[in-house]
Amino acid sequence: MNTRRLPNIGLVGLGALGSAIAEKLISEGTALSIWNRSSEKVDNPALKDATACSTIEELCQRSMWVLSCVSDDGAMLQVNRAIATSDNKPAVHLSFSSCSPTAVQQAATHASDNSISFINCPVLGRPDVVLAGKAGYLVAGETPSVKSIEPLFAKLGGTVSYLGENSEHAATIKLAMNYFIALTIGGLTEILAALGHDQTNADAFLDVIGKSPAGSPLISLFGGLISRQEFSPPLFDLQLAQKDLNYFADLTSGNPDYFLCSAIKKHISTAATSTDHALDWSGLASHLLK
Questions:
Q1: How far apart are CA 232 and CA 227, in angstroms?
Q2: 141 inside domain
Q3: Residue 50: which domain range?
Q4: Does this model's pTM top 0.90?
Q5: Cis peptide before 101 (omega within 30 of 0)
Q6: Distance (Å, rounded) from C-alpha 193 to C-alpha 188?
Q7: Would you say residue 1 lies in a domain?
Q8: Closest CA to 192 of 222, 166, 163
Q9: Residues ≥6 apart with Cβ < 8 Å to 266
Q10: Closest-CA residue to 284 (of 232, 216, 207, 208)
Q11: Which segments within the chain are labelled E, that is strand?
Q12: How many CB atoms lie within 10 A of CB 147?
């Protein structure tokens, strides 16, 4: 456990990723206040040592740093507005959310206008990776504020990539990373579907590529999940992946020559409508395997 004491911290948003971040910080001895739009997420036994707040205003009263982890642009901007207009403004608002560069720029400007330092910090890694202290954090914001929160990342573990003072840079890189992973998942699924239902062929392909220069932990993880068709329960919901792919597509300005982007978006749309239960994004082309 990292024993360095942190200032009072609040966390808004207790979805799968936000809950993992909260649990990891609590396990490291961090005093944490929490708030979530739906109260049942607050009742998670793993978060029993956190202080539950009834409003964002109450959380701001208790916190020098406010962290947030919410689903999309609209939710992030709404939380940012609530923090910026609080009667007890924190020094820092750090957003772990995956959002569009445009929304992140808006949030940073609004926070600055209200004397709050906005740090954008989208996460590379699923909740289990966060809990293991092995996630990646893409950090962009004013250098003095980023340096001030370095002890937070010591508690979280993993790797930190500082991407400069323009907060939207971290958003752009996160979307590019998720697009790359989606391409990998889509390609692996198409290959395994083309190999047919012969598990021997699928196992042989994954073994060969794993031993080759093309092998990687990414291919090993998703190749195994796709081969075994383990697509639920979701650790990263396909709907969230679809949201990020739509944000990435916006970066292409609608250029029709981005054929792979269009194909991945079509895979996701087809997979999402081919089942009545939630899918992990490892199943973004799972309809091919039926």
A1: 14
A2: yes
A3: 9-165
A4: yes
A5: no
A6: 8
A7: no
A8: 222
A9: none
A10: 232
A11: 9-12, 32-35, 51-52, 65-68, 92-95, 117-120, 123-124, 136-139, 159-162
A12: 10
Contact yes or no for 94/149 (Cβ under 8 A): yes
Which amino acid does the sequence have at 22?
A: A
How far apart, in Å, do the first and last CA atoms of the chain sit? 46
The first and second tokens of residue 214, run together, are 């093309």
Which pair of tokens denotes residue 66?
């406010």
Contacts of 157 (CB under 8 A, 6+ apart): 24, 132, 133, 134, 135
Using DSSP, state whether 185 is helix, strand or coil: helix
Q: What is the pLDDT along the chain (290 residues), one digit of tens a residue?
A: 554 557 899 999 999 999 999 999 999 999 999 999 998 899 999 999 999 999 999 999 999 999 999 999 999 999 999 999 999 999 999 999 999 999 999 999 999 999 999 999 999 999 999 999 999 999 999 999 999 999 999 999 999 999 999 999 999 999 999 999 999 999 999 999 999 878 899 999 999 999 999 999 999 999 999 999 999 999 999 999 999 999 999 999 989 999 999 999 999 999 999 998 999 999 999 999 98
Q: What is the CATH number of the domain that holds 266?
A: 1.10.1040.10
Tokens representing residue 165 in the block: 């003072």
Please give the structure tokens belonging to residue 176.
């590019």
Tokens of 125: 């890694």
pLDDT computed for residue 77 by the predictor: 98
Distance CA 126, CA 136 (A): 10
Q: Is position 4 within any domain?
A: no
Location of structure tokens 């990020």: 244
- Is there a contact between 136 and 122 (Cβ–Cβ < 8 Å)? no
Residue type, 175: L
- Alpha-carbon distance 193 to 73, whole Å? 35
CA distances from 183 to 25, 217, 242, 264 (A): 32, 15, 13, 7
**How many residues are given for the chain?**
290
Whether 46 and 161 map to the same domain: the answer is yes
C-alpha 34/C-alpha 155 separation (Å) is 17
